[in-house]
Design brief:
Elements (H helix, E strand, L loop, with lengths): L3 H6 L5 E7 L3 E6 L22 E8 L3 E6 L3 E6 L13 E2 L9 E7 L9 E7 L3 E6 L11 E2 L9 E8 L5 E6 L4 E5 L5 E2 L6 E2 L9 E3 L1
Parallel strand pairs: 9-14
Antiparallel strand pairs: 1-2, 1-3, 2-6, 4-5, 4-7, 5-10, 8-9, 8-11, 9-15, 12-13, 12-16
């Protein structure tokens, strides 16, 4: 092929179910057939005895997949480069590729998302920090990873979401004490990748929160 674009255009346009497990296995499966009401569902297949699925998403063979870790790094893989598995396979173990880090989120990204100013990556940390980052900041992500947020000592990323600011206008953050706060997305400053996030909920002890 003369260019990356020609290579991508030659790839069959297919959707897949992608699973990511706690033990850093990525499993790419043919999309299950639609079932009628009362259907029994399907098994996601073989997993190690101590393993379980932490994220699942539907994505296209021409998409990229961004994997975010608790340590504040992001790794990028092309969907077509990941083998298609059967339910009898464990999947592809990427633990060595992501330097034994802990996977937090798996987000499909299209090439056009990178140039779309309305699409941001939002991340939340255990010490109540939150940030938005423009997609163009992720233009040079490779599968050897780059930093997507700085963290204070003792902090870790607990959730990452892709946000379209033309569709979403607010988020609700919850903590383990049962407190909730609604924040307008326009009030969350857009930061550079290496920057710290903004303190979101001021309470006496650091507690976890998650995005809805």
């Amino acid at each position: 092929y003369n260019s990356e674009e020609e290579k991508v255009n030659a790839i069959p346009d297919e959707d897949y179910l992608m699973l990511c497990t706690n033990n850093s296995y990525v499993k790419k499966l043919q999309l299950p057939k639609t079932q009628n009401r009362g259907g029994k569902g399907i098994s996601v297949g073989k997993l190690k005895e101590d393993d379980y699925v932490i994220k699942s998403t539907i994505l296209n063979s021409r998409d990229s997949i961004f994997i975010f870790t608790a340590e504040g790094n992001v790794y990028k893989f092309k969907v077509y480069e990941i083998p298609t598995h059967t339910t009898n396979n464990l999947g592809t173990n990427i633990k060595t590729i992501i330097n034994n880090e802990t996977i937090i989120s798996m987000i499909p990204v299209k090439d056009e998302d990178i140039e779309n100013d309305s699409i941001k990556i939002m991340c939340a940390t255990e010490l109540n920090r939150i940030k938005l980052v423009n997609m163009c900041e992720f233009k040079n992500v490779r599968n050897n990873g780059i930093l997507f947020t700085r963290l204070e000592e003792g902090d870790r990323v607990i959730n990452v979401e892709k946000i379209d600011t033309e569709v979403h206008d607010s988020i609700i953050a919850l903590n383990t004490l049962g407190n909730a706060i609604r924040v307008k997305i326009e009030d969350i400053p857009v930061s550079l990748r290496p920057a710290f996030g903004l303190s979101l909920i001021h309470i006496s002890e650091p507690t976890r929160h998650s995005l809805i």
